[in-house]
Amino acid sequence: MLRHDASSPAQKRIAVGLLGRGITESLSPVMHEQEGRRLGLAYTYHLIDFDQLGLADAQLPAVLDAARRLGFAGCNVTYPFKQTVLPLLTVLSPEAAGIGAVNSVVFTNGRSTGHNTDCWGFAESFRLGLGAVPMSRVLQIGSGGAGAAVAVALLQLGVGALDVFDTEPERARQLAERLRGRFAVDVNAVDEPSAAVSSASGVVNATPVGMDKYPGTPIDPALLEARQWVADVVYFPRETALIQQARARGCRVLPGGGMAVYQAVRAFELFSGIRPDGAAMTATFRHAAGV
Questions:
Q1: 48, 1 Cβ separation under 8 angstroms
Q2: In this model, does residue 145 exceed pLDDT 50?
Q3: 83 marked as binding residue
Q4: Is 82 among the residues known to form the active site?
Q5: Which terminal residue of the chain has fewer beta carbons within 10 Å of its beta carbon, N or C?
Q6: How crowded is residue 103: how many other Cβ atoms within 10 Å of its Cβ?
Q7: To which CATH superfamily is domain 119-255 assigned?
Q8: What is the mean pLDDT of residues 209-225?
Q9: Which helix (H) or strand (E) element contains residue 29?
Q10: What is the DSSP code string of 127-144?
Q11: Any known ligand binding at 104?
C-alpha cells in the first residue's frame, strides 16, 4: 500500500501520503504530483484511506512508522487524526503546538515533525475568496483538528468575537479557553448554534458534515440571512449542501477548495524543500474539480 514507483536517477524522488478516512475523492494527489512533475521531481502521493484498507484508528502509529521506514518525505494528516497524531511525533512546530493540531508530518533523520498548514491555508483562501466582509462576530461549527486551525486563522484575520459550537461541548470549551489565553478577543463555547446564528456576521463549518460520507448540513440553512457570509472547509463534494443553500439565500460563500489548495502549497514546500507555484496548483485543482 505504501510502495512508490521507480524513477530516473537524475530526478529527486519524493514520496508522501495522506492518512485519513473517506479520502478517496481527495485532489491532493493530483495537485502535488502535477506540481512535482512541473518542477522536474519524481513525486508520488499516496492515499492511505483507513476506511478503504479496513484499518482501525489504533493502527495509526504503525502506518505512520511504516511510511517513515519506507523513506517517505512525510505525510499529510486529515480527519480524524489531526489531534490523535500529536503524541506520535518527535516535535511540533510552534504553529502546530499553538493550534493543537497537525495536518503535515515531515520525516527527517528518523525524526517526525508536526506542522499545521491548514491555518495559513484557510486564511489565504479567506483573503482571496471573501476579502473585506463583516467580521464583528463569527459562529464556527466544529472544534476538532480542522476547527482549531480555522479558529486561529479567524482570530488572526481580525474577528471581533468568536462563538464555537461542537457536538462534544467540552472540546469546544477547551478550545475557547485556550484561544482566550492567546488572543485578546471574546471567544465563547456555545451550547446551541441556532441562537448564535442570528447575531453572527458569518458562519464557518469546520466539521466533516457535508462530505459524501457525512451528508447534511451542520446548521439549518433556513436560519441564514443574505447579510451573512458562509465558509466551509469541506471540498468534496466541491460544494456542500450548506454552501449551495447559503448561496440560494443570498449569502456570500467560500467553498473549501481554496483552503485545500493553499494548505497543499505550504505542505508541498515542507515535503520537498522547494517553493511551488500556487497559481499552478490552483489551476490544477480547478481543472481536476471541473470548476
A1: yes
A2: yes
A3: no
A4: yes
A5: C
A6: 30
A7: NAD(P)-binding Rossmann-like Domain (3.40.50.720)
A8: 95
A9: helix 28-38
A10: HHHT-S---SSEEEE--S
A11: no
Q: CATH top-level class for 13-116+260-289?
A: alpha beta
Would you kindly state where each structural domain of the chain is located, as residue ranges? 13-116+260-289, 119-255
Query: Cell triple for residue 220?
Result: 439549518
Alpha-carbon gap, residue 208 to 187, rounded angstroms: 22
Dihedral (Cα; 162, 167, 171, 176), 10-degree rounding: 10
Is residue 1 predicted with pLDDT exceeding 80? no
Burial class (CB in 10 A: 0-12, 13-18, 19+), 57: exposed
Prediction pTM value = 0.91
Specify the pLDDT at position 11: 72
What is the rounded CA–CA span in Å between residue 273 and residue 242? 37
Written as one string, the DSSP assignment of 195-261 is HHHTT-SEEEE-SSBTBTTS-S-SS-GGG--TT-EEEES--SSSS-HHHHHHHHTT-EEE-THHHHH
* Helix, strand, or coil (residue 181): coil
Q: Distance between CA atoms of 59 and 51, rounded to whole angstroms?
A: 12
User: Is 181 annotated as ligand-binding?
Assistant: no
As a residue count, the chain comes to 291
Q: Check the annotation: does 185 bind a ligand.
A: no
Only one residue has cell 505512520, namely: 64
Q: Does position 5 have pLDDT exceeding 80, yes or no? A: no
Question: Which of 4, 32, 68, 82 does the annotation list as catalytic?
Answer: 82
Cβ atoms of residues 217 and 142 within 8 Å:
no
- Cell matching residue 145: 483538528
In whole angstroms, give the CA distance from residue 78 to residue 144: 11
Average model confidence (pLDDT) across the chain = 94
> Are 33 and 24 within 8 A, CB to CB?
no
Q: With b meaning 16 or more CB within 10 Å and e meaning fewer, what string describes 182-212?
A: ebeeebbbbeebeebbeebbbbbbbbbbbbe
Cα–Cα dist 282/279, whole Å: 5
